[in-house]
Design goal:
With 177 residues, the chain is mainly alpha-helical. Among the domains are: 40 residues; 79 residues, no CATH class. The protein has six helices and three strands; from the N terminus they run ααααββαβα. The longest helix is centred in the C-terminal third of the chain and has 29 residues.
């Protein structure tokens, strides 16, 4: 417990001013029980102060009961959402072409684009694969599995592109398959 908390606790228990509580704690080398005795000897404790004292730490507050209020549930829900957004802001989607980064987009912005422009973004990304674009997520160890999937998708698009180019070359050369 830091000194400010000790002063506040003594002030509340002994019903004295902040200055009296701090002076008493300083006089007894920051011991709460000795400070209470010191204040009592000095006659500074007000009569409506509690009669018993302890140095026992107060227990931690109990978790909310099953019938938690709507306000508490709403607050916890907002905390979860804020935590998720903070984690998503630490991860970014990078679009590469020929080894160079073309675009970097925070995962939060990418998720919003997917939500509101799904039918535009997904086809655009697929077409981008055929034009040599690759996609990587950066910022967390958790995205390594996603990056493997992205690399596989880029490889499949490259194989399809190569297969189409090879079949066009055979057709143009006059040979029949």
């Amino acid at each position: 417990m830091d000194h400010f908390e000790m002063v506040e606790k003594l002030r509340a228990k002994a019903n004295v001013s902040y200055e009296d509580a701090k002076a008493a704690l300083e006089a007894v080398n920051w011991d709460l029980l000795d400070a209470l005795v010191y204040l009592e000897k000095e006659g500074k404790m007000n009569p409506d102060a509690a009669a018993s004292y302890t140095t026992k730490q107060e227990p931690a507050p109990k978790p909310a009961p099953e019938g938690e209020t709507t306000k508490g549930m709403f607050r916890r829900m907002l905390e979860v959402i804020a935590g998720a957004i903070n984690r998503m802001n630490k991860i970014s989607l990078e679009v590469h072409k020929k080894g160079k980064i073309v675009l970097t987009l925070p995962l939060t912005a990418f998720a919003l684009l997917l939500i509101f422009c799904f039918w535009f973004i997904i086809p655009l990304m697929v077409v981008g694969l055929f034009f040599g674009m690759t996609y990587r997520f950066q910022g967390s160890q958790a995205v390594q599995g996603v990056n493997k999937v992205m690399d596989t998708a880029a490889g499949v698009a490259q194989n399809i592109k190569t297969g189409v180019n090879n079949s066009d070359k055979k057709d143009n050369s006059g040979t029949v398959e």
